[in-house]
Amino acid sequence: MTRQVGDVILDVKNISLSFGGVKALTDISFDLREHEIRAIIGPNGAGKSSMLNCINGVYQPQQGSIALRGRTFRHMNSRQVAEMGVARTFQNLALFKGMSVLDNIMTGRNLRMKSNLLLQALRFGPAEREEIEHRRVVERIIDFLEIQPYRKTPVGKMPYGLQKRVDLGRALAMEPQVLLLDEPMAGMNVEEKQDMSRFILDVNDEFGTTIVLIEHDMGVVMDISDRVVVLDYGKKIGDGTPSEVRGNPDVIRAYLGVQH
Ligand SMILES: Nc1ncnc2c1ncn2[C@@H]1O[C@H](COP(=O)(O)OP(=O)(O)OP(=O)(O)O)[C@@H](O)[C@H]1O
Ligand SMILES: [Mg+2]
Fold first, then answer.
1. Which of 22, 40, 211, 239 is the most exposed place for a label (fewest CB within 10 A)?
2. Cβ atoms within 10 A of the Cβ of 55, count?
3. pLDDT tens digits for 5-22?
């Protein structure tokens, strides 16, 4: 990869998280540099989703700290983290299946809506202008993701691969600086994976978004990521470029030898 990366934007330090007796994460540290695509890999149950949940405020780790642009955030909820510019997609889709593509992506704009709902309902001037601007952003995302023919389609009626794309659109509507993607290609066929890889690269390239990507497909990870964190049983066992990680004996033992 020849991508130009910048300073550290997200700094994860000594994070430990447990659920009762289960240690989901033990003393995990890694950083994320501006504009890079950082993969997190590891076997099932390794703690990958838990790590994203700590970063975006869904879980509160018992130990450690996370800093975004040098600002440490402890005990922040997911809305506060989102307001700081971190958006995510979910391993199991969190879309409203009965709602259209347009409306689902619009929910990503909620964070940015200033006018209150009453004003919007009455369609007073500023609120109306704001609504038009939000719609414009959403339409741009729909064009970008090439899902124009589905604008009015209920999400539940779309093929799974396209639903994942809508979920990406909802996250993009938040105009994040950091985008956390939890297995965006899970359950996809080869062609759908290629499309999603291209969209992730385009988001990174065109919007300058920094990306954390959990992915099981090593081919995809090798192709599109700059650096890789490897987790196993909640511990970090590898960190480096895709080729460094691929050559690491601990990683080979824990993960790469196993077919996913
Ligand atoms: N809310 C929770 N309550 C109890 N245990 C949990 C919770 N969330 C995660 N865990 C446990 O933490 C460990 C790590 O789970 P996590 O979902 O982070 O793994 P993962 O690497 O994302 O796995 P997968 O590849 O299957 O998605 C597992 O043992 C899991 O059972
Ligand atoms: Mg997971």
1. 22
2. 24
3. 889 999 999 999 999 989
| Three-class secondary structure of residue 213 per DSSP | strand
- Ligand 1 binding pocket includes 206 (Cβ within 6 Å): no
In whole angstroms, what separates CA 186 from the centre of its chain?
A: 13
What sign for the dihedral angle of Cα 109, 114, 115, 118?
Answer: positive
Mean pLDDT of the chain: 90
Cα-to-centroid distance, 120 and ligand 1 (Å): 40
What pLDDT score was predicted for residue 136? 92
Residue 233 tokens, joined: 């049983």
Ligand 1 atom closest to Cα of 51?
A: 18
Ligand index nearest the alpha carbon of residue 51? 1
Angle at 180 between CA 99 and CA 166, to 5 degrees: 25
Q: Are the C-beta atoms of 238 and 245 separated by less than 8 Å?
A: yes
C-alpha separations of 10 from 62, 81, 108, 139, 211 in Å: 19, 12, 22, 30, 11
What digits encode the pLDDT tens for the residues 29-49?
Answer: 999 999 999 999 999 999 999
> How far is residue 47 from each of residues 40, 50, 161, measured CA to CA in Å?
10, 5, 25
Q: Where are the domains of the chain?
A: 1-85+176-260, 97-174
pLDDT score for 127 = 67
Q: State yes or no: pLDDT of 124 exceeds 60.
A: no
Rounded to the nearest 5°, which phi and psi values hold at 11? -125, 110
Residue 260 pLDDT: 47
Q: So what's the pLDDT on residue 243? A: 93
The protein residue with its alpha carbon nearest to ligand 1, atom 2, reads 19
* CATH number corresponding to 1-85+176-260: 3.40.50.300
